[in-house]
Amino acid sequence: MTAPLTPPHRPSSDNPWQTPQHWDGPGKAGPGSGPAAEGDPGPELLRAVAVALLVTVAGAGLGLLWVWLAPKVPLISDGTAVFLQDSEGEEAIGADGTFVLLALGFGALSAALVFWLRRRGGVAMVVALAVGGVLGSLLAWRLGEWLGPDQDVVAHARAVGKGVVFDAPLQLRTAAAAWLAWPVAAMVVHLALTALFGPRDPEPEWGTHPGWAAGGPVPGAGHGAAGPGTAPGGNVPPVPPAGP
């Protein structure tokens, strides 16, 4: 007489080769995976749109600083034409340099703030920073020209009179490069912060059979079939006590 083996309705927990529960076969995901586990892209898209709008509105601050910090270009009129008061001055290119430097600072600051609030990367946030940076630069450019000196140089010269120095209109001579300074700086800084301080993917954990950790025999090694008196899975059934 031998002891009964594991009941057929209860699989042995010592068999390392048994099929895991909630496993639907190769290539099929178990519970906790699928679209629900990856997250709904809707909220992430809404956050990206909000970031793009906020960065665009921040362009108003860039425009105000540009009007305030950009060097003035003095002009003078002799009654028939308008000339630069100082033909060797570098104020004419100073407006472009001031705009680019301010845009680089705004790009780095916006990227740092977005990363600090989200603490993660993502393509949506990078695209939002790029789009918002371009729109914010355009807003700053138009706002600066509107708040700066009069764009009509001839009318301004007639208004101030002959021999009177007045400021030239605020302009961007390298507009394309100036508009790209903010988005490029934002993308570079955000990607760098994500690479340095962003969350890391967890390392895969490989399970270890208790018998292997203790240095015991590997289940299933050697002969392909279990020996006589051995239960499926490599378990030796207990021997019943001898009768009287």
Overview of this structure, please?
- This protein is mainly α.
- The protein has a domain at 43-69 and 91-147 and 168-194.
- 50% of the residues lie in helices and 4% in strands.
- The chain is built from seven helices and three strands; from the N terminus they run H-H-E-E-H-H-H-E-H-H.
- The protein has a three-stranded antiparallel β-sheet, with helices on one face.
- Strand 1 and strand 2 (82-84) form a beta hairpin.
- The radius of gyration is 36 Å and the shape is rod-shaped.
- It starts with 34 loop residues before the first helix and ends in a 31-residue tail after the last helix.
- Mean pLDDT is 76; it is low at 29-38.
User: Which H/E pattern describes the elements?
Assistant: HHEEHHHEHH
Task: Please count the helical segments.
Answer: 7
What is the global morphology? rod-shaped
Q: Determine the strand fraction and express it as a percent band.
A: under 5%
Percent in helix = 40-55%
Output the structural class. Answer: mainly alpha
Instruction: Tell me the span between the first and last alpha carbons.
Output: 14 Å
Largest sheet: 3 strands, antiparallel
Q: Could you tell me the number of beta strands? A: 3
Low-confidence runs: 29-38
In spatial order, strands of the major sheet run 2-1-3
- Based on CA atoms alone, the radius of gyration comes out at 36 Å
Mean pLDDT metric: 76
